Every structure is written in structure tokens, then in C-alpha cells.
Amino acid sequence: MKKKLYISFLIIITVFFLIGGKKKEKSKVPPAYKKWLEEEVVYIMAPIEKEVFLKLETDRERDLFQDAFWKHRDPTQGIPTNEFRQEHYRRINYANHFFGRGIPKLGWRTDRGRVHIILGEPIDIQRFEGKTVIYPTVIWFYQGLTKLGLPPGFYLVFFQQGGMGEFKLYSPLKDGPQALMTSYWGDPMDYLMAYNELREMEPDLAQVSLSLIPGEGGAAVIGRPSLSSDLLIQRVETTAIRQIKERYAKKFLEYKDIVEVEYTANYIDSDSLVKVIKDRSGFYFVHYAIEPAKLSVDQYENKYYANLKLNGTVSNLEGKNIYQFEKTISLDFDEERIKSIRRQPLLIQDMFPLIPGNYKLSILFKNETSKEFTSLERNLVIPQEEEAPQMTSLILGYRIKKSTPQQDRLRPFQAGEYQIYFQANRVFLKDGNLIIVFQIHGLSGELREKGEVKFTFLKSGEEFLSKNRKVAEYQDLPNILEQFDLSQFPPAHYRVQVSLFVDGQEVLFDSEEFDITHLEAIARPWVYSKLSPDTQDPLHFYLIGTQLFNSGKIAEARVNLEKAFQKKPDSVDFALNLARTYMVLNEYKKVESLLLPFINQPQLPKYEVFFMMGKTYQNLGELSKAIEVLDKAISSYGININLLNTIGECYFQLGEPDEALAAWQKSLEINQNQPQIKKSVEALKEKK
């Protein structure tokens, strides 16, 4: 018996601490923010927004999130006053003033208060009060809210259940006409009998008791409540949440520690496209396009301008950065140009080479003029060179143009001699064209003769159209381009699958989704892109070599970086990356000969040149030279712990402990969190 009591006591204690733990977790949100979360925005906040808000750790982050929350609901962002926020708090005050009377709760907590906060005032109110045969009831009528995904007109009914307390939102299905009458003695499941009895008392009230949507007279005929009325109530409850694109909240959490503070509340939506295309030289290029939902510009006199920045990173599956880049775009327009592009979205296109492997691509787009940002993230697979055939992913365009760039230039989203025009959201006109572009690599002569490409269009999961064509019919292999007239395609959502068949067997396939719109016209984007150097340009060998180095493939990196430097021996960046490779290979004499011309040049060398040369001399045992070079770095760029620690090491190796101690102590003044340096300092002090 005692054992059972002891176990019960343990269970009670465990439950107590579990509950206590949960309460403690909730209390992490300070009271002012808790009130905002649980009272002020409870009816208009999406679950993902709440989830993100609860993950924030500082009041500064919470303030910034609140700014973003209201900004993404503001219909007129060009003016100082946030009209949505202002109207929201006006509705809360109204609800508290009028709907909390005579009941032990604030008005915003009532059903009428909730609906009023979500939808605002109805255009008409009908009251049934002071009646002996029906409970106090109010009918609200709304109209013109189709933009919110609601019917053109509808009713909402509130009644005092049992004749006391607050007014409850009426459900034709859950409550029924019988709940509105004070003395209904019929079958509680007989809605038709209750409806007929109510109609004799109050015809107008009976009219909405089975259906809240005007024109649904069938409910009264069949004597059952309308299911669509309860669906309407559910849609009303989620109206505010449905209007918001929740992606901004996820991006806020993801980028709050990356972008500057002034950007965090200003996430804008965007569409994007990322494709991998193999160049004729054998390099794989990542082609990317980003289409921000809007382009904010500033004005000075009659000129308009915007400064944009792209920061990209490519990391492997272990999270290590393999490649990173930064692009700056300066746009300026005159009055005529800004008018012509005002209704057109901007589409930024670019490309870069990438070595084989599996990666995550992340690109941050910042408008430095308006402090707005957006981003794209993709998983990338760059295939290894294999004998087996390989197919690239499909590009769906609405137009192509024969456009052969200069012989030593590459253009984003160009396959062979054709430039592909597309929109990142893949929406097409019903009287337009669909151009499908992709590549098939590794085709032997036999496969070219036997191979057949099949295009299959699926609508609602069923085959709508298919087309077969022999591989040998395509003249520009490995590039394959096929055009389809969309006039026979009704507006809908489609998926196209492209397969390579050999001897009746499917060898390769890829698919892509697209939409055909009912609209007669679409604002196609204006494109910003720049030509890139040809693959024999030293820049490409430099980029590939750097990626190989970051991947730990030092021997391959060396080959490419040496090619780059041989083609451009005056580039300090090319020299530095090659020098890093030699350092890893312990070829310090090569580092010295590589960097010596940059140390002795008239203009100030880069800091990295000083530091790497100092480390090189240290590794060669030429410690005095190392100290001399590192001292020059301090004179030119100021002190830092890396320079001081290396100087200390050199003095220690030279047998000058006092100089070593001075350098290390100065380093600890800058950063005390250096355990190894502290040990070295203590060891030197003990010897004194």
C-alpha cells in the first residue's frame, strides 16, 4: 500500500513540475508582448506568425517583428499612418465599449466582438428584442466582401442562449431554429417543424435560421440547415489570416541575425527560378533569376534610382561554404523610362560556374534605397561526369529569341543560340506559346539514333496531350527546344513531363508545373542581366579553383588557380588564393616568390598579403623577416590579435621572451578569451 502511495506521489510531483515547466516557458514573453499576442492580435495572427514570435528572444526582436506584422497588413505603405493598424484598434475599442456591457468579460472576447474585429461594422442590423416567444436575437448583414473570399452578401446571427448572458454566434446546423424560441416543445431534431413554427412568429428571423446566405431557399424546402452556412462561419473566422502571405514571418526568423536591423521588418515577396545548364566547354553553370514583388525607387529632381545588392552563398551538405559572391546593381531612370516600367516587374538574371556536388544555394536580395529584402533558397545537384545519359531540368519560356552573344561572352538562360524569355511564376497566356528547353548529355551515336523524346501534358492528374519526337531530329544537341501552341489548352493548372525513351524503355525524365491564365494580358518583366566572360577567361578558372580549395580538393584547386594566375599575373586576388593552396601543400618558397612582387609594389599591399607573407617567413624559419613584414602590416592596418600572436611566436622562437610576452599581453588586452595565449604568458612569467 505504501508503495502505491509513493508512486502516486511521484506522479503528482512529476505532473506538477511538467505543468510548472510549461507555465515557465509561456512566461518568457514579457507581459506587454503577451497582451499584444493573446488579446490584441489573437483574431488576425496566423499560426506561423505566432510560432515565430514565440521563438524570439529579445524585446528588440519582438519590436521589429511587430513592425513587420503591421507593415504586411498596411494597404497604403507610402504614407506614415498604418490604416489597417489604426482601424484594428478602433474596432477593439468599439467591441469593448458596446459588446461587454452587462457580462463579466471584455467585449473583444465575445462572439460579436470577434466578428466585429475581423469584418468591421455590418451594413445593416436587425434586432429582435423584448419578445416573449423568442430569445433576444440580432442579425448582421454584410455585403461587398468578395475580395476577402466571402459571398457577395451574407447574414450572421447572434442570440442570447436561454435569454441571458452574452450574445452567441448562431449556427444553423449546431443550434437550429429551435434554439431561438423560448418555448419550442417539438422534436429537437425536426428542423422543418421548428422552422415553420418560427416563421409564424418572426418570418424575417426564420428566413436566416436555416441558411445565412441569401438565395439558398432550398434549405427551407428540404427542412435541413445549410452546410454552406457553417462553412461560411469558418471562413469568417479565418478571414484575416487568409489575407496574409505568411512567408515574411519565416524569413524574419531566418534572416533576423543576418540582415541589418533596418531591413528585418521589410521583407517583400518574390518569385525565383534556378536552373543548371552545361556549357559547351563542359562547365556546369547555375543560372538564377529573382523577381521581387515590387521595386521601390527614390527620386532626386527628375531622376529615379535604386541601389540593389545580391549576397549569395553555396554550401555543401555539411554546411561548409564552398562559394560566395556579392553583386551590386545601380539602377537609374528618367521620367519616361520609369513610366514605361512602372507596371512591369523587374527580373534579375545571373549565372556562375559550380563544381560537381550537392549544395544549398541561398541568395539575399537587398534594396539599399528602401531597406527592403527578399531571398531565394534552393537545393542544387551538379552531376559528376559519367558515361550514362543525363538530363537537365526543364526551363519553360513564353518566348525565345535568336541571340548569339559575342564569342567571348556568356548570357544567363541562353541555350545554344537561343535566349529564353520566361517568368519565374510560370504563368502563360491562353493564346500564347510554351517553349520547353532542356539538355540531354552523354548520348552515344546509337542512343541518338534510337532515342525518342516524349512530352506529356497532365491536367488534373490525367493526360491531356502528348507528343513524341526522335532525338536525331534535334539539330542543336545536347540542347533540345520544343514549342507548343497553347490555344487548345483551357486555362488551368498543368504539369508537363518530358521523358527519354530508348527501345521503348524510359531512361530519363523530368517534369515541371505551369498555369494558363484566364487573363488577356500579363505584365511581362523587364530583364536586368549582364554578359559573363567565356569559360576560357581566367575568372572561371579562379572561381572553380576557389570552390575546389574550399571543398578540400587541393590538387585540383592548384591546377585551376595556376591557370588563372598564369593568364592574369597582375591580380592580387588570384595570387592570394594560389598562395593559400601552396601554404596547405607546405610549398613556402613558392608562396614567397608569388607574393614578393605585391609586397614591393608602390601602392599599399593588401592586409592579406602582409599576413600570409609573414606566416610564410615564419614557416621558412626566417623569423626576423616575418616580424618585419608583420610590423608593416600593423603600421598600415593597425593591431589585431592574429598579428600580435604571430609576432609573439616569432620572438619566442628567436629566444626573445620579453618581446614575445609584450606581444601576447597586448593581444590579451584586446581579447581575453584566448586560453592558449594565456598559458604561454603564464609560462613565461613563471620563468622570470
TrEMBL record:
PROSITE patterns in UniProt: TPR
Pfam families associated with the record: GWxTD_dom, TPR_1, TPR_19, TPR_8
SUPFAM superfamilies hit by this protein: TPR-like
Keyword terms of this UniProt record: Repeat, TPR repeat
Coiled coil: none
Domain GWxTD: 37-133
NCBIfam families, per database record: GWxTD_dom (TIGR04514)
Protein name, UniProt field: GWxTD domain-containing protein
Taxonomic placement: unclassified sequences, metagenomes, ecological metagenomes
